[in-house]
Amino acid sequence: MLAAGVETEPGEERLLDLTRASQALWPDFTRALEAAAGVDVGYRDEGTLVVALTRDDAEQLRNLATFQRGCGIALDWLDGAAARAREPHLTPRTVGAVFSPRDHQVDNRRLVGALVKAVAAAGARLHEQCDVALDVVGGRAVGVIAGERRIPADVVVLCAGAWSRSVAGLPPDARPPVRPIKGQMLAVRMDPAAPLLRHVVWAPNAYLVPRRDGRLLIGATVEERGFDTANTAGAIYGLLDGAWRAVPAIEELPIDEMWTGFRPGSRDDAPLLGASPVDNLILATGHHRNGILLAPVTADAIRDLVLTGRLPEVVRRFTPDRFARPQPVAAEATA
Predict the structure, then answer these.
(1) Would you say 213 and 190 are in contact if contact means Cβ atoms under 8 Å apart?
(2) Helices in the chain by DSSP H: which ranges?
(3) What is the C-alpha to C-alpha distance for residues 333 and 330, in angstroms, rounded to an integer?
(4) Which DSSP state fits 328?
(5) Among 131, 137, 172, 228, which has the highest number of CB atoms less than 10 A from its own CB?
(6) Helix count (H) and strand count (E) of the chain?
(7) How far apart are CA 34 and CA 22, in angstroms?
(8) Do the beta carbons of residue 1 and residue 45 sit within 8 Å?
(9) At what angle do helices 108-121 and 13-37 cross, to 10 degrees?
(10) With bands split at pLDDT 50, 70 and 90, how would you rate the model's confidence at 325?
(11) Main-chain dihedrals φ then ψ at residue 130, nearest 5 degrees
């Protein structure tokens, strides 16, 4: 979900400039990638609906929409009938909805497959299914070790997601403050010729993402469980219940798949982009739930840093050294 709008919450204002900048890059990024790879990445621009199923839901949604509009996000309020006109399979109990026209989606699995083809066509070499370590000599990154092969490099970019702290060879004092945040999801199977939904739909306790191949993704939990890969009955039940309350017709759909993923969460849930304490080592990690959304702006920023030694202005507040800066000391109270 490329949702710089509806996913913005109070406290995330400083991240919004970055997410909106990246969201704006996505159409051109998609066209360039599809041309390079010859693969459709499933980019869809129907927009996103956030639905309210009760009056309390509606009041909370109106308050959030007021905040988001104040941040410059384009949103439309729909009553229940207008929401169901856009998505007829929404429950008749739908009270209202917010429509965000600029919040789009892309099929992340197709995206990764396209990136593999594009980078191979550009001359990059991928080393897959092997242990990888950072090669550090005298406090300086000089390359990587892939399996038994040592690969020298002038600059190394560490972009290992939730596993960024555990890359072998990384000095203990240079490990980025990134942790895994578990998310459970499932997919049900629709008829691709007659899908239940066209928009991404956010309900109070689940979101639903229709894919062109007929899958309907339902997600996602947010759990501090380390690298626990188990799908649990309670989590899956909760997601299905939340989705069913918004779109009752999913009841008859077969379950296609269940899985677990790990978001790379930082201390402030914002990415770490820039130089690390290790010379010649650059970090691009900690994106939390925005990894796909921030892919184009991250790629451009890291490219600029490698080639020019400078980061674009929109990225500079997200350098890794923000966690090393001393915090202001509160003044002592006097009697």
Answers:
(1) no
(2) 13-37, 55-70, 80-86, 108-121, 233-246, 295-308
(3) 9
(4) P
(5) 228
(6) 6, 14
(7) 18
(8) no
(9) 60
(10) low
(11) -145, 155
Q: State what percent of residues in the chain have pLDDT above 70.
A: 97
| Residue whose token pair is 């989590």 | 235
The confidence score (pLDDT) of residue 331 equals: 44
SS3 174: helix
| CA separation for the pair 137, 278 (Å, rounded) | 10
Q: Provide the token pair at 31.
A: 């066209």
Contact 215, 206 (CB under 8 A): no
CB 197 within 8 A of CB 83: no
Best CA proximity match to 185, nearest among 155, 221, 222: 221
pTM as predicted:
0.93
**Averaged over 61-79, what is the pLDDT?**
97
CA distance readout (Å), 112 to 39, 109, 254, 281, 295: 10, 5, 26, 24, 11
Dist. CA 196–CA 249, nearest whole Å: 8
Q: How many other CB atoms are found less than 10 A from the CB of residue 249?
A: 14
Total residues belonging to the chain: 335
Tokens 């899956």 belong to which residue? 236
Check residue 74 and report its DSSP letter.
-
| DSSP category for residue 13 | H
| In contact, 266 and 145? CB cutoff 8 Å | no
Q: How far is CA 143 from the centre of its chain?
A: 28
Asked if 198 and 156 count as a contact pair (C-beta separation under 8 A), the reply is: no
Q: Is the peptide bond before 220 cis (omega within 30 degrees of 0)?
A: yes
- Farthest-apart Cα atoms in the chain, separation: 74
Residue 210 CB neighbour total at 10 angstroms? 22
Residue 255's pLDDT is 97
126 vs 160: CA distance, rounded Å: 14
